[in-house]
């Protein structure tokens, strides 16, 4: 078949939890390295790559506020957690010889670059992987919304959301053996049926900007390059 990649520029969103491996918390360096290799193989195909990593493996604003912290403070802590994950991924990618930039929505000049849209676009054109950190820079948002925002700003052709399952199912496939995977689903169906893909603000932003969301499994080796060629199983929200 035709093995040319269908995309020129995409954004990969992974949750912080994808970096934990079998641990209950934090970063598992061999897992970070495994995902970095996946990103490298996508990059090696000549695809311009943006990455957004969550922070849930380290800190989530909602859990902090449930324990009595002020929500905004807890959210800033969550955003800082995403910077730690971004730095870990940058280290793993650079060890593989891939040029990267960590670009933070909250300026911290000694650590990484501040977000300047036109500069980020230039990095992509120069084939550097851009890892967008600190979410949107605002409390009450999630990294799913940040991923949708950055993908739109960078004119990405799609968001690839790597999860533990190979798409969106009508019910939880881990507890329901008869769950059915959708090949294709509309933004409105996701919102109406409350399918667990991304939060509602991220879905609405993607819908308003006609940005397709491809949900696929991070578990399958070489999965992401295959998915970018239209191989394997996944669900497209469009
Ligand atoms: N966060 C935020 N604003 C943003 C993005 C993230 O306040 O624009 C905070 C929020 O507290 C969130 C935490 O950062 O709980 C970690 O992000 P997220 O929960 O999206 O991570 P994931 O679930 O993808 O690992």
CATH fold-level assignment: Carbamate kinase
CATH superfamily: Acetylglutamate kinase-like
Distinct compounds present: uridine-5'-diphosphate
Strand count, sense and barrel status of the largest sheet are: 9 strands, mixed
Helix content: 25-40%
At the first level of CATH, the class is Alpha Beta
Average pLDDT: 95
Strand content: 15-25%
The overall strand count is 9
How many structural domains?
1
CA(first)-CA(last) distance: 25 Å
| CATH architecture call | 3-Layer(aba) Sandwich
SSE pattern, N- to C-terminal: EHEHHEEHEHEEHHEHE
Figure out the total of helices.
8
- Backbone shape: globular
- Output the strand order for the largest sheet: 4-3-5-2-1-6-8-9-7
Q: In terms of per-residue confidence, which ranges show pLDDT below 50 for 5 or more consecutive residues?
A: none
Catalytic activity: UMP + ATP = UDP + ADP
GO molecular function, one term: ATP binding
Protein name: Uridylate kinase
Keywords: ATP-binding, Cytoplasm, Kinase, Nucleotide-binding, Pyrimidine biosynthesis, Transferase
Report on the architecture of this protein.
By secondary structure, the protein is an alpha/beta fold. It has one domain: 3-Layer(aba) Sandwich (Carbamate kinase), CATH 3.40.1160.10. The chain contains eight helices and nine strands. It has a nine-stranded mixed sheet, sandwiched between helices. Strand 1, helix 1 and strand 2 form a beta-alpha-beta unit. Helix 1 packs across helix 3 and helix 5 runs parallel beside helix 7. The longest helix is centred in the middle third of the chain and has 25 residues. It is globular, with a radius of gyration of 17 Å. The two termini are 25 Å apart. 44% of the residues are buried. The protein binds uridine-5'-diphosphate (UDP). The site of uridine-5'-diphosphate has 23 residues, from helix 2, helix 3 and helix 5. Uridine-5'-diphosphate binds next to helix 2, helix 3 and helix 5.
